[in-house]
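Run DUF397 domain-containing protein through structure prediction, thanks.
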Amino acid sequence: MDNATPASRDLPPEARGNSKWHDTTDAVWKRSSLSRENSSAVVEVAEFEDGYRAVRDGKHPEKGTLFFTPAEWDAFVLGAKDGEFDIPEEYLTAEEAAIQRGEVPVRAVVAPASRETGRAGDASAEEGGAQAEGEQS
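Sure, done. The structure for DUF397 domain-containing protein is below.
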């Protein structure tokens, strides 16, 4: 009989010593509506039951995942809403400037099936037009 439990299995190197790490095997990734297939990077965010968030480049998930505590995520959202991460408009296209000023609605959509897991996520979130708080990229 196998005595191994999920808690005792070998963790990937990035999980060792990382108290924020979460298993993303069954994560539902939501893609920013501003991330287009022809973009060099595609921003995807997953939320876990305990409020932690994970962020990755959906085009290259093998490059790694960033994990945020609920407090860190809240601080990021507040900063984004307050313009803390805005780019000076002289460096933006007219469309990008309109998005940054909030003139164009931004929403998260369920990411297509991941190359990593094959999971497409919860289609009901896409149909419902789920809004990603503070999503600017």
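The CA atoms of residues 28 and 40 lie 22 Å apart.
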